[in-house]
Structure formats: structure tokens, C-alpha cells
Amino acid sequence: MFKLKIYQLILPLAGILMLTINPLGAKTAKSILSIARANSTITFDGLPEGPCWENATPIPVFQHSPNFGDEPTEQTEMRIAYNDKYLWVFAKLYYNDPSNIVSKTKKRDGTATGTDIFGIILDTYNTNESALAFFTSPSGHRTDYEISNDASGSSFSGKGSINYSWNTFWDVKTARTPYGWSMEMRVPFSSLKFQEVGGKVTMGLMVNRKVSHNNELYTYPEIDPKHGMLAPIKPSLAAKIEFEGIKAEKPVYVSPYVITGMEQKRTLSLDKTHYDKDNSPELDAGLDIKYNISSNLTLDLTANTDFAQVEADDERVNITRYSLYFPEKRMFFQERSSLFGFGLGGSQELFYSRRIGISHDGPVRIFGGARLTGRVGKWDIGLLDMQTQKLNDIPSENFGVFRVRRQVVNENSFLGAMATTRLGNNGSRSAAYGIDGIFRLFGDDYLETKVAQVANSETENPGFKDNSFAHIQWERRNQKGFSYKFSYGYTGKMFYPTVGFISKLGVQSYSARAQYDWLPGNSSKIYSLKLFLSNTYVQRIQGKELESRTIFGGVSVSSKTGWTGFGSFSQVKDGIKYNFYLAADAYVPAGEYSYLTFFSLLSSPSSKPLSVSLNLSGGGYYDGNRLSASFSPMFRASSSLQLSGSYSLNKISFDKRNQKFTSHIARLKLMYMHSTKVSLSSFIQYNSQSNLAIGNIRLRYNPREGNDFYLVYNEIKPSFNYDFGEARKVPFLNRMVLLKYIHTFKM
Fold first, then answer.
1. Cβ–Cβ < 8 Å for 322, 503
2. How far apart, in Å, are the Cα atoms of 455 and each of 212, 615, 699?
3. Share of residues in the chain with pLDDT > 70 (%)
4. Please, what's the b/e burial string for 89-122 (b: 16 or more CB within 10 A of its CB; e: otherwise)?
5. What is the CA 679 to chain-centroid distance, rounded?
6. What is the pTM of this model?
7. Strand partners, 112
8. Residues 516-520, mean pLDDT to the nearest whole number
9. Beta strand extents in 189-247 (DSSP E only)
10. Percent of the chain scored above 90 by pLDDT?
11. 19 close to 226: Cβ distance less than 8 angstroms
């Protein structure tokens, strides 16, 4: 029966909330720095000089690593100001020897690993949990991303706390100077989204400067490394800044796109003697509209939603019995995507946007949709509604999502609720709904709770437990000294959110982890040393049978020069209910298995022109043995040219059953960046499991934010052992040339 029982979800969470009503974790109020208003005209050229520089508010920086508390080796002068339209950030970045400047990318959203960077993180709603980041380098490249769950390693959204696919409208200019380099950054207030209270706007501010030649990181405010590797971008550690009398514009951004090209397909005949040819011209168009209703509410509309055809998922080999998770890359779903996160453990999600418009049969056209995100009072809200077209046996469907969250108890605690629906024109209906909370109890101790249910029209009279989910976790987030994590999870055998991502049904899990971190101090060559031990037990609810148990322990070490190493051992016990296949001639029979595994990783400093990452793992694998290895070199010749590659091997043998499975994945990527506006990339991927080679060449011209021109060539070729007989001679399986243009009009 399709029946909601939301009241049954509220009761257990209410009890937990009563236990946390005493705000033991409340922090002392931080002082607020008032930011100066720029009253003079600003010349936007990357050279901060004149009245705009003299009158801006100075911001100091402190050494965070590798020697916390020491004076920075290189001098930094940074100031911030604002006018009616923009937040302005100015910086003069000095070097004792300017030849030490490291600049390795010009690409929009290019990785900043191993290059000198400077940027800010803004907690625009002053939530102490989420923020927006804006970074640049000496080349003037732009990288922006969204931070959620206070950049915690165990993300509130369950899929990672940093969304690098998020983009917005902002500009930066840099200049080389005799003392080093300088930069000017301007971010429209209309791109930030904020909340005004009594004519004032309070935000959190963090500043990061990376000096690669000596592996130093400077921050504002002063941040103790005990808060972990991501401490320099944790919104809860941000300083507070204040603006008066700012009013964001309410622009309307209209972004039509057009795609044209040709796709050639080759489909193997049923008798496997030849390929049927299909040449399909490609012509499509669509429209996205972004309207800033107010400084804290944004409405996004879409028609014939862009499918991000110019992006490609990396090839992967799955040697587990669970589904692989792929991240969302379509731009329409990126705005405040963290708000829609409702993690169910690992990569599992109550809402997974790739369920909309993507199926096993390929893309499903999205007629259109709308999304509203922002804040009303103390509530963060998100609404989404999308309508898709019929495709083969998949009916035309409507997808709906509703999400709310707010702070409770103290500034680091949150309570939220989510509901999703999926309605087909064939009468199929499903819904999922839940409540989640995260509560800072005291110090660095957090309690996380989640309960959810599903209701599907095709499920008759499910028991309350069968279609329910519950999770509770207690964790100490300190990364200096002793820390721990304890959790329990329950997933009913019919808990399948049709707009979500779930890999395990009908199980309950128990997990405990203990960890001890050392920061040896300024006199040591070691930056951090970590020991950890965990035990995870997963049991099938029906019959109380073993699903899996893993005892996992190891050590992680990093040096002050940028070397990192990791080693671990695991004792694994798995209960396999059904045979699962790695290939047609290699499988794991149902049964119970116990075996030992190891994993090791070594990475060289990324600041060098050539950097390498190596890992080796193996040991037992059910009733056989496994050896896995990967090698990932990267050569950065300059800020204009990068060459990277990777090779991974999985070699599995079941000697008693005379079965073997070997997989190879190889990638080679060349990136040429003519400027910050023009880039050309080419990559080749080979996957021996599918016996396919995939090639891609992409030219991108990005004259300004919101305007993009792409020319893309893709080809999928069979390898020498792809098929049999005459069919093997086919030159390619799929060949596609696409021309895509997006133009944004500001109304």
C-alpha cells in the first residue's frame, strides 16, 4: 500500500534531540571584523594600487604548515573591500626569490595541486558548515567549488564534502611583478547569496596561500593543524566579517545552448557475423534560466536540460558485488547541490540526481524543470521538480524533491528533512522521506542521526522495518591525539529509494574506529603520523547471516616536503548469498570466506615538475588470491602543458577452480592551455574488461563566465579480442563529432 508514515520517523529523532538540548558544544562568540567600503573607482587590472588599496581592510596571514606558528617564509599583503556591486579582494604576494614561483595550470577549474595559489573561502550564510571557495594562481586561472559538512571527512551528504563541479560568475586578474605576483579578485554579491539582518550581513572568511617551492601554507585566521588536513577550508574555523548596506542585484541569466554534429554507431548483429550501421545527425537545443529572486533565494529553470555531453566518466573496473557510484556533472544540478545531500552511508544517497534523465538504455530527455534554493529565516530550503520523456519501456516521469535544514541547539548542529517522489504516467508511484540531524555535543564530539522510509506503489503491505532506514553515529573529529567513531545502521530489505542510490538492502551494520594522530612539531621532518584500527560488521537482517566483517588497521605518514605514505592490513570475512561474476568464465560461488589483504600507497611531492603516485594491494580474495597495482605519473612542463597517465592492474586467480581474471585500465591525457580562456585536451582510455579503447579530443573556448564553445571528438574502438570472426574487423563501435555553444545573457 502506498502510505506515508512520517510520524513514525519523527518520534525516535525527537528523543535523540531531547538528549542534545543542552548546548554543551556552544562556542564563544567570535569578534567580527568590519570590512571597509570602497568609495573610489577601482581599476581592474591585477595591480592593487592607489586609493582602493590604501583604504581596503588589511588581513594578516599565518603559517599553518609545515611549521605551525612560525613566521611565513614569504611575505603576503592582502586586503579586502566592497562596493555596491562587488566584493573585492587584493593581494601582493612576495618571494625572496621570484624564480621560485610555481605556476602549473591555466585551465578553468584546473587542479591546483602543486601550484602556487591564493584564494578565499566565504561562509556566505554564516552557517559554520557550508561555504564557497574562489582561488587563482600566478597564471590567472580560476577555480571555484562548494564546501559542505564543514569539510568533514565523513560527509553529511555521504558523497564527499567538496563539489568541484560548482561554478558561478566572478572574475580575477593577476600580474607578475618584481617582488612576485599580484592579484585582484571581484565577486558579484549576486553570485554569493547571503542574508541581511538589521542592515548588516555577516559572513565567515578564510584566506589560503600555498607556496609550493617550500610546501608552506598560510591561512587567515590562524588555524591549528589538529583540526585535520582540510582544516584550512573548514567553515567552522572561519573568522567573521561584516558588511553594511549591501544590496545584491537581481539579475536574470538566460543561457541557451545548441549542439550539432554527427554520431556513427555500429551494432553487432544477432548472429555475430557483421555490424549494422547507423549514422545519426545530432541537432539539439535547450535553455537554462537563473533568477535571483532575492539575495538569499535563487530560482533555476530548465528546458530540454543539457546532458553535459562534453564530459566523460573515467573507466573503472568493479571487482566488488556492489554498484559503482558516479558523480553528477550536469550544471543544472550543481547550484547548492550539498543542500540536497542526505547520505545513507558511504556513497549511498536518498537523492541521487543521476536517476533523473539517465538510464541503463542511455540518456532520457528531460522536457524541463525548476529548482528553488536559498534561505528563509533560519531555514535552508531546496525544491526541485523535473519531467522526463518516455523512452522504450521507461514511462514519462515526474521527479520531485523537497529539502529543509536549519541550525539547532548551537552553531554547529543541524536538523533537516527531505522528501522525494517519482511518478510515472503508467501509474507507477514511489516516495522516500526522512529526517536527519547532526549535533555538536561538546568539544569535537558530534552525534549524527538519520531515519527514512520509502513507499512504492508496487510493494504490497511492507512491514514497517522492511521499508525503513536508520543510522546513528558518534564521532570525535579531532585529528591530533585520540579520536574515534562508533556507528550503527539499519537498511530494510524493501528500502529502495527510486530517486536515490543504494547498494545494500536488508542489512544492519556495526562499526567502530579508533585513531591516534601525532604532529611531531617544527623540529621534525615528519609533518603528521597516524595510526588507526577499525572493525565493521554487516549482518543480513533475514536469518542473521553474515554479509561482511572487516578488521582494518594501518599507518599513514606525511613529510614536510610533500611525500605521503600509507599502509594497511585487513582481515576480511564475507558471506556471499548468490554467485557473482567478474567475467563470463570467472565468478565467486555463494558461500562464506575469510582472507587477509594489504594495501600500500606512496606519493611524491606534487610541486615538482614530475610527480608520481604508486599503490600496491593484494592478498586473499574469497577462495583465491588477488594482486592489484596502479601507477599514476604527472608531468607539468609549464602552466601551458601537462601530460598525465595512469595504469592499473587487477590480477585474480582461483587456483582450486582453475579460473583467472585479469583486468587492465590505462589512461593517457595531454592538456595544452593556450591561455585561461582556450584549452585543448586529449585522452585515451583502455579497459580490458570491456575490451574497449576510448579516445576523446576536446577544444574549449571560454571567453567569459557563462559563455562556452566546445568542439569534441569521441571514438570507441574494439580491442583485438573484442569479438569473433568477421565482426572483429569493425574499425570502431561509436564515433561522434559534437559542436556545442552556450551563451549567457544577463538581463
1. yes
2. 53, 44, 46
3. 89
4. bbbbbbbeeeeebbbbbbbbbbbbebbbbbbbbb
5. 23
6. 0.84
7. none
8. 93
9. 200-211, 216-220, 239-244
10. 55
11. no
Q: pLDDT tens digits for 351-396?
A: 988 888 887 767 888 999 999 998 888 899 999 999 999 988 889 9
Q: Please enumerate in sequence order all residues whose Cβ is within 8 A of that of 203, keeping only pairs 6 or more positions apart, or say none.
A: 122, 123, 124, 125, 126, 192, 194, 240, 241, 242, 243
Whether the upstream peptide bond of residue 12 has omega within 30° of 0, thus cis, is no
Q: Which domains does the chain have, with CATH numbers?
A: 31-244 (2.60.40.1190)
Q: pLDDT at position 308, please? A: 58
How does pLDDT run across 161-185, given as a tens digit for each residue?
Answer: 888 888 899 999 999 999 999 999 9
CA distances from 426 to 304, 368, 392, 430, 443 (A): 22, 19, 13, 12, 53
Q: Residue 331 carries which DSSP code? A: G
Distance from first CA to last CA of the chain, Å, rounded?
A: 48
List, for residues 199-254, the tens digit of each pLDDT value. Answer: 899 999 999 999 999 999 999 999 999 888 889 999 999 999 999 988 777 889 99
DSSP for 24-52 reads TTPPPPPPEEEPEE--S----SS---SHH
For residue 512, list its beta bridge partners. 486, 535
- Whole-angstrom Cα distance, residue 678 to residue 141? 11
**Residues near 243 by beta carbon (within 8 Å), at least 6 away in sequence:** 35, 82, 200, 201, 203
Which helix (H) or strand (E) element contains residue 6?
Answer: helix 6-19
Phi/psi of residue 9, each to 5°? -85, -30
In angstroms, rounded to a whole number, what is the distance separating the alpha carbons of residues 43 and 40? 10
Of these ranges, 89-103, 399-413, 578-592, 690-704, the one predicted with the greatest mean pLDDT is: 89-103
Grouping H, G, I as helix, E, B as strand and the rest as coil, residue 379 is strand
